[in-house]
Amino acid sequence: MNGLTFEHPWFLLCLLLVAAVTWTRLRAWPASLQISTLRTVAQVKPSLRLRLRWLPDLLRTVALSILVVALARPQIVDQEVLSGEGVDIMIAFDLSGSMNAIDMSADDITALQAQGREPDNRFEAARKILKDFIHHRKSDRIGLVIFGNEAYLRFPPTLDYIRLLNALDALVLDDGRRSQDNQENCNNKCTINGAGTAIGDALNRAFLRLDKAKSRSKMIILLTDGKQEGGRMDPLTVPKYISSLPDKERVKVFTFQVGSGRETRLPALDPLTGRSLTDRFGRLVYQRPERPFPIDPALLRQIAELTGGQFYDSYNAEKFAKDFKDLEKTTFSVKVKVSRSELFFDWLVAGLSLLALELLLRRWWLRVFPG
Question: Of 103, 181, 242, 330, which sits most exposed with the smallest number of CB within 10 A?
Fold first, then answer.
């Protein structure tokens, strides 16, 4: 993108002075000569020199204006957007059962339901934000690891955002319902068993995928609402290993503590049928969980610090959206290369040339007598 700018734009105010001087000269009363009759004068045809007697004044005005612009240092600015080769990103997405929780007060839930809407749980709020994040990427390869009581790769790093978004849409969160015959399988055909929060396993799978990537910049975005429960690997094993690597080989981990225990509610379930309870208007009923969901912000902060990333305490959906925008703004900001081409000399030569032409005409061809 190109554009004209000035290094010292305040000099342009001198154009007002040039305009004022020109206006004053134009307003000056011209010299006159009283004669008895115009009959003889009317028969005299003005020469070319007479017709161009205004030209030196015009040239001087234009020349002074050009010199003023030259003093303001005009420059052509060329801006080049540097997209680079993109970033390799692995998203570690928590699908534990506690992601069914709503982080909203009872009054706010009632007000939302009065508008005919139901609040998003942690999982739905995070999925919407992730989809919006992916929509704004252009050259970044993005992969997805999901985890509950275990972790596995859902999608390897890719530029095929359509298929990645479809994979996100296809995720089904464990709603906690189980049959009496099999306590391992969820009744709602969930994507992964949500009885645990295997943070360490998720980080390990995400890091192993990025370790094979050849891009210069790699990062993991960890979204979880709980502390380490289940899984085989300690959650600090991978971050400590990353911290031991040379700076160029490190993978930054950005951690999000989604939700808190301040205003946590879950959809109420009928103990007999296992179905969600609704009121007489067909709206879902929410209640406090029987036990608080354990959180571990200190662990997530330590993971981020060890890897050079950043920790976000996203205690509700609104704060989560704001934090994710902050991540995009600071980490994925557009880099612009700016170069400037000086026009000062060209304008200076043009102004001095017109000024020399004006003096030449005034002293020679359009000279006025007496001089």
Answer: 181
Distance CA 86, CA 215 (A): 7
Domain 88-331 has CATH 3.40.50.410: yes
* Domain locations along the chain: 2-28+41-80+339-363, 88-331
In this predicted structure, the answer to whether residue 339 has a pLDDT above a threshold of 80 is no
Strands 88-94 and 218-224: parallel
pLDDT at 226 over 70: yes
Buried b (16+ CB within 10 A) or exposed e, 67-91: bbbbbbbbbeeeeeeeeeebbbbbb
Residues recorded for the chain: 371
- Asked if the peptide bond before residue 370 counts as cis, ω within 30 degrees of 0, the response is yes
Mean pLDDT of the chain: 83
Token pair of 325 as six digits: 């925008």
